[in-house]
Write a structure and sequence with these properties.
- Helices cover 30% and strands 15% of the residues.
């Protein structure tokens, strides 16, 4: 933590509680009116850890590679295929 001089004044539980309490805030409705779905909010969000698993096949159609790639949880395509979350924030 020496590399980051900024310290949070609350623990992760308090922060999570505040974020969940603000989930249905009118602020989000207002901000959504001008949203371009560009994903920038995910880039700057310190709590974002969403990812997608992508498979690529080799030409032999027998082998391939499975990769975990960053995904923006606020993007429409991501929401369409998401598992039901533990806290029920997304439909």
């Amino acid at each position: 933590m020496e590399k980051c001089p900024e310290k949070l004044s609350h623990g992760s539980h308090e922060i999570a509680t505040k974020v969940r309490a603000a989930f249905h805030s009118k602020l989000w409705e207002e901000l959504s009116r001008t949203c371009f779905s560009c994903g920038t909010c995910n880039i700057v969000c310190p709590t974002c850890y969403c990812f997608d698993v992508q498979d690529t096949w080799n030409l032999d159609q027998v082998s391939g590679q499975r990769c975990r790639a960053w995904d923006g949880c606020q993007l429409e395509d991501s929401r369409r295929f998401r598992w039901v979350p533990a806290h029920g924030e997304l439909p």
